[in-house]
Every structure is written in C-alpha cells, then in structure tokens.
Amino acid sequence: EELSLSQNCEMPVKEEIEVYEEPVPKQDKAFSDKSSLLIHKKTYIDEKLYQCSRCDKAFSQKGNLIRHERIHTGEKPYLCEQCGMTFLQNNDLIKHQRTHTGEKPYQCNQCDKSFSRNSILVQHQR
C-alpha cells in the first residue's frame, strides 16, 4: 500500500510539517511523520507474530509480548531503591518515585497548582 501525503488535515498541524495519512478501517488518523504512522501500523494493523503461550493475546512487537508475559509470571523487574516496591513497567516506577521526591511536573494552566500525575491534573480541571 502506498502512503498518501496531505497538507489538509482536521488536526491542527504546523504548515511546514507534512502529514502522512493512510486509511485505517473504522479509524480516521493522521500522523505528523512517517515513523509514527509505521509504528501505528505495526502495533494495530500488521500481523500479530508474537503469541502469548499462556493466553490468546498476540502482539506485533516482541517487546510488547515480553511486557505482557510479566502479568502471568508476576515478574516486576523495576525496583524503587528508596522503599523496595517493585513495578511491572519502568514508567510506573518513575511515577511512583515522585511520591519520594515531591516532583509535580503537571501544572494547571488555570491556577498555580501542580500535580505528580497527569490524570490528577485532568481530574482537577473538570
């Protein structure tokens, strides 16, 4: 399949950025660069080559299968050095570490409050 190049897109995109589009069944997506489109295709459209041996889930990327299999094994390889808690994914460890550091990177644009997680900011803004 060929990629079509378009300057007209419903998403607000800077004029100098080319937008790559490809029809996706039941989806209307646009990507700001070709690599984002290819990653999306590989994840959601391409053949799922990596089958979990413990359930019916399958993945197009081996890393996603490895991360999924931790659900079955209970492996939590990411350790918090401060309190000993372990996590399935590195991004969960990073979020957790903010409880120790007090870091609050998500700033409300309507008041002066900051939050440690984006989901808390979104809830605050409702």
TrEMBL record:
<dbReference type="InterPro" id="IPR050826">
    <property type="entry name" value="Krueppel_C2H2_ZnFinger"/>
</dbReference>
<comment type="similarity">
    <text>Belongs to the krueppel C2H2-type zinc-finger protein family.</text>
</comment>
<dbReference type="GO" id="GO:0008270">
    <property type="term" value="F:zinc ion binding"/>
</dbReference>
<keyword id="KW-0479">Metal-binding</keyword>
<keyword id="KW-0862">Zinc</keyword>
<keyword id="KW-0677">Repeat</keyword>
<feature type="domain" description="C2H2-type">
    <location>
        <begin position="50"/>
        <end position="77"/>
    </location>
</feature>
<dbReference type="Pfam" id="PF00096">
    <property type="entry name" value="zf-C2H2"/>
</dbReference>
<dbReference type="InterPro" id="IPR013087">
    <property type="entry name" value="Znf_C2H2_type"/>
</dbReference>
<feature type="domain" description="C2H2-type">
    <location>
        <begin position="106"/>
        <end position="126"/>
    </location>
</feature>
<dbReference type="InterPro" id="IPR036236">
    <property type="entry name" value="Znf_C2H2_sf"/>
</dbReference>
<keyword id="KW-0863">Zinc-finger</keyword>
<feature type="domain" description="C2H2-type">
    <location>
        <begin position="78"/>
        <end position="105"/>
    </location>
</feature>
<dbReference type="Pfam" id="PF13465">
    <property type="entry name" value="zf-H2C2_2"/>
</dbReference>
<protein>
    <recommendedName>
        <fullName>C2H2-type domain-containing protein</fullName>
    </recommendedName>
</protein>
<keyword id="KW-0539">Nucleus</keyword>
